[in-house]
Amino acid sequence: MLRYPANEDVTLESYFGVFRYSRRAIQLVWSTHRGLTIALALFTVTAGVLPAAVAYVGKLIVDGVVSEIVTVQDGGSAEYSLVFAWVIVEGLLVAGLAGVQRAIGFCQALLRVLLSQRVNILILEKALTLDLAQFEDSEFYDKLNRARQEASSRPLSLVNRTFGLAQHGISLASFGGLLLQFSPWAVLILIAAGIPAFAAETAFSGERFRVFRRRSPERRMLLYLEMVLAREDHAKEVKLFSLGRELMSRYRNIFGVLYEEDRKLAIRRDGWGFALSLFGNVAFYSTYAWIAVSTIQGSISLGEMTMYLLVFKQGQSSVSSMLTSIGGMYEDNLYLSNLYEYLEEETPQGHGISTTGPDPSAGLTFDNVSFTYPGGSHSAVRNVSFSIRPGQSVAIVGLNGSGKTTLIKLMAGLYPPDSGSIYYQGMELSQWNLAELRKSIGVIFQDFNRYQLPVGENIGVGDVGHLWEDERWIDAATKGKAAKFIDKLPEGYQTPLGRWFNKGQELSGGEWQRVALSRAFMRTGADILVLDEPTASMDSQTESEIFDDFQSLTADKIAILISHRFSTVRRAELIMVMDQGEIIERGSHGELLAMGGQYARLFELQARGYR
Question: Which CATH class is domain 374-608?
Answer without folding.
Answer: alpha beta
